[in-house]
Amino acid sequence: MAESLTPSSVPKPSAPAAAARVRPGSTSAVRPPERRALVRRSASLMRRWARDTFNRESFLSSLRSLLWVAPLTLLIWIYAEREQQSTNTARFQIVIKSADPTQVATFANSNDQNVTATLKGPKARLDEAKERLDPRSSAGPVQVVIDGNRPPGQYQIDILSQIQKDFRLDNNGITVVDCTPRDVRVDVDALQEVELEVKADPQARFVSPPVFDPPRVKLTAPASAIRTAKGELFARANLPPLTQGPHNGLKVPVTVEGMSDPRVVIRPGTVSASVEVGQADVSYRIDSLPVFPVPTPDVWQKQTIRYNQFLSNVNVYGPPDKIEQLRNGTLKPTPEARFKVTDNDVGGKKVTRDLDYILPQGISKGDDAPKQIELELVPREPS
Asked: Count of CB atoms within 10 A of residue 95's CB?
């Protein structure tokens, strides 16, 4: 009897035999295994790449890089924004100074000291410079230095290049494109030095003349200011309010009336004073002080002088006994004010003249008393 065969005992055809059963020209039995192998290799490569890319160490490394790269990128962007060129205008003050220490320069027109300039530069530094150029800032006005060794007189100065030299602009890469005004007129004068006697306030009352050490000081000021000063120039010792009796070794500052310009220098600026104060002065207000002209004969005959004939509320000072006599009308001469009128005042327009006060001995006018009066000359009609 023939031996029965089970499926497991049936021999499998060999690869060549299986290949022999494939019809010539057919690939249906080869491609599916190759495609599956390619998919498996691709999936394996993807898993390996994902494992290498998204592991803990790689993620932490990328996060660390981001922590310093992101702020650096932001800083670079901010810096580029700040350095971007921009144009803006600024309004500020300027001061004029001569490069020659023996000369002084001033504006012929005070309006020229306010300048409007067009500035160009990095936006952030431009905004900062505008704040520091503001007249209210502590940096001060822009200084314009003109050449020295000039004869006294008036000059026209181009200030654009001088403004550019200011440390708030030139040191910050900011350019001054234009400014208004572009040119200013400047008065140049020589500095002059004179010696002045130190005196006390004429209104103060002393038993004996005060003694000052040093008795004279040196004043340095523009020559034109010294030439045109009104009245006697002297150094006034600004004594504080003092009680009656002697006071020795006082340290007091000195000033010169009419010389308040910051370029005026007084050396020394302080003196030592020894004074003996008498009875304290008291004040009195004259309600109506008469004013009289002192004209030339020709003006008196041909012109009518129109002016305010009385001054109201004039304060005076003096010893209590004399003030009491003044109040009662028994102190002579009667207080009045006078002013001179000359032929040069004729012309039909208003002019201003200085007032001279005629007061009894020991009586002084207050600082608030009017110093000038306005008048007008009108021709008299023929009689």
From this structure: 15
Kindly report the average pLDDT of the chain as a whole number.
83
Domain layout of the chain by residue ranges: 85-181, 190-277, 282-379
CA 8 – CA 307 distance, rounded (Å): 150
Q: What is the pLDDT of residue 44?
A: 78
Q: What is the DSSP string of 195-240?
A: EEEEEE-TTS-BSS--EEESSEEEEEEEHHHHHT--S---EEE-PP
pLDDT of residue 227: 86
Tokens encoding 108: 């012929």
The values of phi and psi at residue 50, to 5°, are -65, -40
Burial (Cβ within 10 Å: 0-12, 13-18, ≥19) of residue 133: buried
CA distances from 286 to 83, 293, 338, 359, 360 (A): 70, 20, 16, 12, 13
- Domain 282-379 part of CATH 1.10.3720.10: no
pLDDT tens digits along 125-182: 888 888 888 877 777 889 999 888 889 999 999 999 889 988 888 877 888 999 999 9
How does pLDDT run across 16-68, given as a tens digit for each residue?
444 444 455 544 444 566 777 777 777 777 777 666 666 666 666 666 776 77
* CATH code at 190-277: 2.170.120.30
Cα(90)–Cα(137) distance, integer angstroms: 13
SS3 30: coil
Please tell me the number of Cα atoms within 13 Å of 335 on its side-chain side.
Answer: 33
